[in-house]
Design goal:
The protein is α/β, with parallel strands linked by helices. The chain has one domain. The protein contains three helices and six strands. Helix 1 packs across helix 2. The longest helix has 29 residues. It is flat and about 40 Å long.
Length: 140
């Protein structure tokens, strides 16, 4: 096809309509996958780390410190969103933290009203992650 407006002889849709249909299908499957993963998290309690991320950008003075991070954090948040307010307590997770865990992280996660157990170890620091991004926000 030479232009986006040309009609497909196969299904009678123009190229843009086929692209939108494909994009919608991908979004639908993505949402379904998120729901399945979230339901697994609701049913099986997990142990996660909440990271205190530091983000640096190449060629810039811009830097962010103490950004809440860790895949488990966002998995629990996704499960909480799927569970809704009525069933938020069914999302259970255990978070291992060090003595320097940022108070604002704990306050933020408590607002989600999940069944979160914080296990504090006074003998260690909280796990931290350093992320560096280059041009186009690609991770270095």
């Amino acid at each position: 096809m030479e232009s986006l407006n040309e009609v497909s002889p196969v299904c009678g849709l123009d190229s843009r309509a086929k692209w939108l249909t494909g994009a919608f299908r991908c979004a639908l499957w993505g949402c379904l996958l998120l729901v399945i993963i979230s339901m697994i998290l609701i049913l099986f309690r997990r142990t996660f780390l909440i990271y205190a991320d530091e983000i640096e950008y190449v060629g810039s003075q811009r830097r962010q410190e103490s950004v809440i991070g860790g895949a488990g954090t966002y998995a629990a948040l996704g499960a909480r969103l799927v569970a809704g307010a009525e069933y938020s307590g069914s999302v259970g997770w255990i978070v291992d933290i060090g003595y320097d865990f940022p108070v604002q992280f704990r306050e933020m996660t408590e607002l989600w009203r999940t069944s979160c157990l914080f296990r504090e170890d006074k003998s260690r620091l909280t796990t931290k992650a350093w992320n560096k991004y280059g041009p186009g926000d690609h991770r270095c």
